[in-house]
Amino acid sequence: MKLPRAEYKEIVRWTEHLRPTRQCMKMLKERFPNHSQSTLLSIFSLEYQKRTKRTISRHHAPDVIESHYQRYLSEGKAHPTAPVLLELANEVDLSPALMARIILDRFLQDLEGGMPSKTVLNSMLKEPSLIPDQILANNIYQCTINDCCYGPLVDCIKHAIGQEHEVLLRDKLKERNLSFLDENQLRAMGYDKTPDIILEVPIAVEGRIVHWIESKASFGDDHSHRTYLNEQFWSYWNRFGPGLVIYWYGFIEELDCQRDRGILLKDCFPTDIVTLCHAAQQDQLPQEPE
Amino acid sequence: MAALLESLLLKKVDVNTVVDWLKNLEEHDKLSLSKPGVTVHKQEFVPFLLNFLRDQSSQALTHGPATPAKTPSRPRPAAQTQGFTDRRGCRSAGGAGSRSASRIQLFSPATSVSPDTEMDASQKGRRRSGAGGGGGGGGYSRISEQVSPPSVGQLNFNNLEDFPPVGSSPVSPVASKPSRRINPTPVSAERPHSKPKTCFTSTPFRKLSSPPSGGEVLQEERELLKREKTKRAQQVSSPLPSSLDPCTPTKSGLRTGSKVTPDLVFVLSCFAENLVPNIFLELFFVMQLLTSQSPHTHDDDEQESLCAVNSGVQLIFISPSKYCFIHKHLLLSCVRLVAHLDKCTLRLLAENERVASFSPGLRDRLTQAQDRSTATVNTLVLYFSTFIHSVPFRPATDNRSNFGSDKAFHTFKKQRDIFYEVLREWEDFHMEPGWNFDAALGSRIRGMMSQLTSAGNHSHFARLFLKQLVQMCKGPRVNSSPGDTPDTDLLGMLGADSLGRLKRLEERLIQPHGVVGPCPPPSFPGHQEFFRDFLQTASCCQLNQHLQDSLCQQLLQLDEVSILSPPASIGEGEEEGDGDMEHQRFTSVLLLARLLAKFLGFISFLPYQTSERPSREIQETAVALRSKSVPVLDVCAVLSNSVRRRRTILTVPWLVEFLSMLDFIRRMLLGRSGEMCYLNKLLMVSVLGWLFQIPVIPEDIFFTSEFTEVAKLEDSNTSGAGLDCIPLVGQQLLYTCCPFLGEFRKLLAAFVSGSTAKSGGIIRKITPTSAELRDTPAANRSQQKLQVDLEQAFFHNQPPSLRRTVEFVAERIGSNGVKHMKATLVSELVERGEKMLRDGLELPNSNPSKLNDSICAQLCDAGLEAMARATRYNSRFYKQQVLTTSENITKRLATEKACSWLSANITALIRREWKTRYDRVMKALG
């Protein structure tokens, strides 16, 4: 779904005070019933990440960590079954998953008498049963499953969604009988930059030539689009010519301004594909964006 | 020199003799006149003549390229003053001064330094320094000044400052030249366009490097001139100018143009035989005269000439009209050449009232030529996709296995992205005021270079750089940036053709438009500027070396490339079909070679570039030093090889591009010869002419005929079909390679619109015409355009060999298709025709010839209809996959080729076949 910038800003403004919890997501959805849940969630997630980046350093100061840890210890002792860590995270306005990481990190320092390795930390976050302390394990678990922006669960979901859309894209291409090379084939051939799809025979979408397609299972906002342009899209253009980016969860309409330069944005698989064969032009598939 | 000229003017020497002498390479360098002791060097004579012409017509020439103004002769006073002070002993070698003076005088006198007692030391010094253009308006006038009677002797008739005050000359009516007295303002300050002019239209020819015989010649000249002068003075005093005197023609002679005087014949011959270095410069000069805004109309001719005669100052040519008269003849003699200019120029020329009044015949010929002319200035000849592509990544050359290390591979990955980032930024900002290439991009580019060096990736980058250069700049004109036009979508809808036209219109409307003359300086238009600035900023010797190697190799390969189709396909009698292919291939090769050569020249001579011409001492040292090193390109070898193989039409234009980048020191010798088709020749003449006007090219090259040897070589080896004899150059290619030809149009247009310098430029008249109705709807056309784009895009990311294969196969299949059509369709139609004929003849009172006509027309119609059906029938295809796509493109191309040939020729074919059949039937019937 393409959002005019004004509309996008309204959503962003409204998400400013939201926490990354299910309840908040429900509120957001009720406030903007015309927008799809995925789009809203993606916008919020991006905004929340920005917010976190601004504030995270505050929580990484040693004295702050120490005070969080001490509070967890004392309250955890008092109420062993209560979700004290989740409440603490909400109270200090930090992502629960990140709070869990900070506390676990601090805990492991005491346990091992030094900085714990990243792999150990990550594996324990992924699998809290590995944590020697039962109460802490419960708290960590509560934090990760109640965070819709950070944490191993969210990472996993995001990755799966990404994969899903790539598969979806490939299926659509096969359906249209368009031959292509995918990322893995490209890597095997030694390409230095690999979009998701390179079309062996270019197509035209809305009158623009398309050589490659990149699938993004997220919302295209200013920040992420700028980063992608610099790190990926222009690099693809530099090697393969003009191409198409699909932001499956929509994007800010105004960002689609590089069409003349050879980067076309879409929020769904394009319906008006023109190929070199006149005959194939007509069999357009009915396609619902969301 | 002057002696010879004088002899010519007085018919003492046969014009043809002199022309033959000038033309003939084998003959003796010196021409001995009937008078003993008078010898003239060939190489000096033409410059002398040209200077003389300039000099004489300077009074009429009131507006130059930079000042199409009513205020006449503004440049002149300053220039003359400079020349004057120069002569007074100021030692300043005055490069600028003499240059601005030399629109009037193109060449400095070719006379050599001589032990001349009359000449003071400073004068000699100045001459030797090679800047002696300006002095007193040229050698001729200087001499005349020295020998004329005292009353007029102090006058430099070209010097306005020196003009006698009003009324001092008893018979000179002041009113005849009122405008000449308008306050002479300095030239340089107010003329923004004057730079190219001072550089090119008016490069004074320097003193020849090898001074010929010396003093006697000069002395002799002087004597002759003195005599001539007195003779003139006598004639002047006689009330009736003798009609026999070539120099003072009667009014009737002027009006009707019935008399062609020997001097004219001579000048004309020089032009016609290509004895001048740049025919276009001379033509431009003529057109300037034609458009000069003289205050006199033709009705004033009589008075004008009388005044001039009476003033006793002018020697030979009398009035502006007279110059026009002369130059009209020049135009006539060059009409074959002029006829190849673009339509618009021809129209303007034909509509010029002076041309009309002098010679209606000329006007008619121009009008005729107009109909044949196809070129319009700034035309995009070839179809170039409006989209600018990047250089495709090809695993075969670009993947990890082509790099020495992982580090090198990943560094280059970044380099590529930075390169395009810089390019995009340049596209976006370079037109903005105050934007500076080095300041904005310099550090990034230099950082990139140092990284390249540490990774040793220069060869990879050089390849990327060159490919991108070719991709962006090979076309005749690529619009500067894709973001420029806000309504690209709309333009895209109109299709490539209309798009080009709209672009042109846009250009015409927004371009500041000055007349810069027919010899603009070498330039880097469009994206070329980016690549030049990049190289300058990068200033990386490793990169330059890699580029040089690669450019050299590519150029020599291109020079050898086969343009002609394989002989098999020529021999089939389908010559019409193949010519077009050759044409395209040649155009493409030529444009590419010119681009590469320019950059090779740029890189090769970059280390030696100086903004000022170095002093003689520095020059000599440098010459001594550099004569030891091997030049990057052996120009002479390439050239002689090309002459031998008759491929100069391809080689010379690119060599010219290469040489146009020369620094001041490098000297080369150029030659040319060979029988060629006219437009081919024209291209050569114009590019060469341009080259000869560039200041770094030593002027004497043209006049020292060093190419005899080369010519001999050519005679000895004429085997094999060369390119030179095939009409490969179209009018459009000519204009693409020589954009300066468009200057003629500008000049004439300026005259027509009666523009003034005060308004700051030329007022353009654009006549709105209603849009043509197209048979195909807009949507359909944009679809077609998209299909073409897709096809281009498809080939873009495939190896080039695929495209070549497809083209080759399509060519063969197409030709087979044509044969098939001939065998089936045409013979079927002719059969049908025979039946109709026989039926018709059986009818009472039938008229065979009428019947013939009607049947023939019917058959042709039927043929065209069948064609249309065949075209539709043939375009059914396709599935995906690379192979299928190629196959389909091949099919399409083949169909297209066959159909286009057939549709162009089917009528003629049917007519021919039908004619034979008709004759046979009629014969059989008795």
Describe this structure in words.
By secondary structure, chain A is an alpha/beta fold. Chain A has 3 domains: 2-56; 60-146, no CATH class; 155-279, Trna Endonuclease, Chain: A, domain 1 (3-Layer(aba) Sandwich), CATH 3.40.1350. Chain A contains 11 helices and 8 strands. Chain A has helices spanning 5-15, 22-31, 37-60, 62-78, 84-91, 96-112, 118-126, 134-145, 152-175, 183-188, 222-240; strands at 2-3, 180-182, 197-205, 208-216, 243-247, 251-252, 263-266, 273-274. In chain A, strands 2, 3, 4, 5, 7 and 8 form a 6-stranded mixed β-sheet that branches. A two-stranded parallel sheet of chain A has the order 1-6. In chain A, helix 4 packs across helix 6 (96-112). The radius of gyration of chain A is 23 Å and the shape is elongated. The N and C termini of chain A lie close together (8 Å). The model of chain A is unreliable at 278-290 (pLDDT under 50). Chain B is mostly helical and 926 residues long. Among the domains of chain B are: 1-61 and 262-293 and 318-372, no CATH class; 388-474 and 524-539, no CATH class; 544-564 and 579-714 and 721-729, no CATH class; 785-924, no CATH class. Chain B is built from 41 helices and 2 strands. A two-stranded antiparallel ribbon of chain B has the order 1-2. In chain B, a hairpin with a 6-residue loop joins strand 1 and strand 2. The longest helix of chain B is centred in the C-terminal third of the chain and has 44 residues, at 882-925. Chain B is extended. About 40% of the residues of chain B have low confidence. At the A-B interface, strand 3 and helix 11 of A face helix 21, helix 24, helix 38 and helix 41 of B.
